[in-house]
Amino acid sequence: MSELEGEVEGHVDGHGFVRRDDGGAPVYLSAQEMRAVLHRDRVRVRIVRHDRRGRPEGRVLDILERRRAPIIGRLLHEGGVWLVAPEDRRFGHDIIVPKNAIAGAAAGQVVAIELTEPPSLYSQPMGRVTEVLGEIDDPGMEIEIAVRKYEVPHRFSAEALAQAAALPDKLRAADRRHRIDLADVPLVTIDGEDARDFDDAVYCEPFKRGRGKSAFSGWRLVVAIADVSHYVKPGDALDAAAYERATSVYFPRRVIPMLPEKLSNGLCSLNPELDRAALVCDMLVAGDGSIDAYQFYPAVICSHARLTYTEVAAILANTRGPEAQARAALVPHLLHLHEAYRALLKERSRRGAVDFETTETRIVCDAQGRIEKIVPYQRTDAHRLIEEAMLAANECAAGFIETAGHPTLYRVHEGPTPERRATLQNYLRALGIGLHLSDEPTPAELQGIAEATKGRADVAQIHAMLLRSMQQAVYASGNVGHFGLAYKAYAHFTSPIRRYPDLLVHRVIKAILGERRYQLDAALVASLPPPRRLPKGGAKPARPASQELALWERAGVHCSANERRADEASRDVEAWLKCRFMREHLGEEYAGTVSAVTSFGLFVTLDALYVEGLVHITELGGEYYRFDEVQQALRGERSGVRYVVGTRLRVQVSRVDLDSRRIDFRLVRDERTPVAPSGTRGTRAPDAGEQLRELQAADRAVKKAARAGTAGRRAAAGAAQAVPGAKGGRRQRRSRR
């Protein structure tokens, strides 16, 4: 049998998986095999068998590396024994703490614990408390837990803070050298009401070259981006801190920034009426939306106004309204910007970039950091015109670097794999959608399907499947284009305050302008261990052609992994907040829509609250339901009733669990008219009682295999407050494509 290495990923039911370094299928570990290992340990395993579906099952041969990061959990005192129940239930073990190692913490408090003795086949792990975070109900506790749970760096080094403090508060005379003065150009920033860092400003004016009717006409579009690279130099403490974080992490009411506040909200933020250093992408947009010409140059700019999306949308909707009157001098430029946006939008459609219908939400918190309400995130033309301007600048940055033959980090996005293409084709065929996908689908094909299915009742389900067919975008040294945006080359240029790849792109562009070559800091890249495996969904990179490209590739994998980590931490916090929010709605009934279908039930999103929860399959009535993976549907064998994405239901909030971030609903009624079954019924299907007993028996078997007492102690810890969990969406500031 073959041997391999990988990282353990625990499961709340006691078993686990090994995520292989070679990217192959995960290897299943039974609860017995998990007794001596912990979530995130590195192990060597041997594949001992395969199940009926060909999935491998392994046996742990050796533990290569123990998890070193602190574990976060609740301190409990039971039967005279102190122990910590990890907040992340994938660890599968409670950790015993000697009385003299609790660091003064009280029972019920949230603590960070360091392992002193790992688990074995015959003993539980032991540890000591290294940090007392506070009470579980303290405001902001969910963020304190998340940054430690996901190992998000949240404290700057003393050297980085000292370096930031030594920077000037405003632009100096020396900072203006070799820069074009654009202070008189009425650039403006356009962001959300809650934005604090302003890294991009825009300006647009009509452009005409030549004479007569045949003269070229279009727009000059100026995108000015904060020149972070002017202050954060390779090899210094600020650069090391920024690379370690790789991205800012956005939570409701709080941001863990990539750079200290002195830069992110001050010196590098394009605040109004202040001169700032910027790197400018100056473009000529033709009437058909194509980029006729562009140039990059360092400049000094002065933002003439800090505008919000709401304000700009109001101005575009009514140029004689109060918002327009208050910004009268800027209205003509905003109208030109809107004209250029409409041209860019035509070009987007012409090249076939995908644009699926999705509903995003925004969490509104009260002064205590708890959810006050969840509202749909309304995207207006103000949002879209900024997005298109940033996309155009990013495309130009990638083209400029590629033409110069200089290595960089591209933002790459590949299309469907052959397996995903086949799955999508079968799904569309099952729905009776006769649109064929070629062997190598193009973005235009997927967008054509999206356009053709608009207006259908199941449009949300179809668009979700289209999204699922594509791979995740990653940072890579090799340019393979951006499938979703239908760009041949694409790089992130527009957010160097909050994304390290953008900072690298700025350095490369400035090096090309200075006719030199930027060398990635090998010591910095080597200072942090590379992720053992690619982020889920990322394409496996080709072997770099040189040592220099290998260094860039390693930096890209690091940035991609940290981006995924930031997303996971944000979703975890939003799920926690939704749990607290739903605690006040237990027993209440709501109308909702099925948002996902699985073999074990339906996920339903409530219309009024925009919160998602699970209707377990045992709540669907007195018959046996089969899961149709192709059509993503549950079908009752006796009645023929089908549940798919988009089905309207009325549900009751029945149970909530903070530990698993889960909300359970009970089906009150199906708001459709049931469909009578067609054809014969076949053999008798088990009734709901039989199905429930089968599930309970399987659940008992799994729990029996888990370590004795672990589940019971966690249940006791959570009994004091029954709180729900949910799948949280991440906070949307800008498109992260």
What does this structure look like?
- By secondary structure, the protein is α+β, with helices and mostly antiparallel strands.
- It has four domains: about 5-65, Nucleic acid-binding proteins (OB fold (Dihydrolipoamide Acetyltransferase, E2P)), CATH 2.40.50.140; about 75-135, OB fold (Dihydrolipoamide Acetyltransferase, E2P), CATH 2.40.50; about 160-405, no CATH class; about 575-720, Beta Barrel (OB fold (Dihydrolipoamide Acetyltransferase, E2P)), CATH 2.40.50.
- Strands 3-2-1-4-5 form a five-stranded antiparallel sheet, with no helix packed on it.
- The longest helix has about 35 residues, at about 545-580.
- It is globular, with a radius of gyration of 28 Å.
- Mean pLDDT is about 85; it is low at about 535-540 and about 675-735.
- Report Rg: 28 Å
Reported for the largest beta sheet, the result is: 5 strands, antiparallel
User: Could you give the distance between the termini?
Assistant: 42 Å
DSSP strand content: 25-35%
Form type? globular
Multimer state: single chain
- Contiguous helical run count: 16
| Backbone structural class | alpha+beta
| Count of strand segments | 31
Range of helix content? 25-40%
User: Numbering strands along the chain, what is their spatial order in the largest sheet?
Assistant: 3-2-1-4-5
Average pLDDT figure: 86
* Total number of distinct structural domains: 4
Low-pLDDT sequence parts: 535-539, 673-736
